[in-house]
Amino acid sequence: MGHTLTEPVHWRGRQWAVTGYGIEALDGMYHVPAAEVWPGPDGTLPWLEALYRRYGTDRDDLNAALKVARRIWSPPDAPSPVTHGAGPGGARGIDL
Fold this sequence. Notes:
This protein is α+β, with helices and mostly antiparallel strands. Helix content is 23%, strand content 16%. It has a 4-stranded antiparallel sheet with strand order 1-2-3-4. A hairpin with a 3-residue loop joins β1 (9-12) and β2.
């Protein structure tokens, strides 16, 4: 089962995708806004720990999505985010 991902889709893994919204589960059950891919003032990512505890979460795929998302969106106190254009054959995304 899947759902329509928010465009643009920067990267798509087995269970997670990095989209124009942030990190989205391919089944549509979980969405993490781009603003939350970096730790907050307390240095934690509560959503990440919660998803790790969920049965069936592909941790490696989620970690890869987080790594890609952090390449796209800068930390809140950093300069503007990096943008990525179309690659070979018009494909969009980032290679890990």
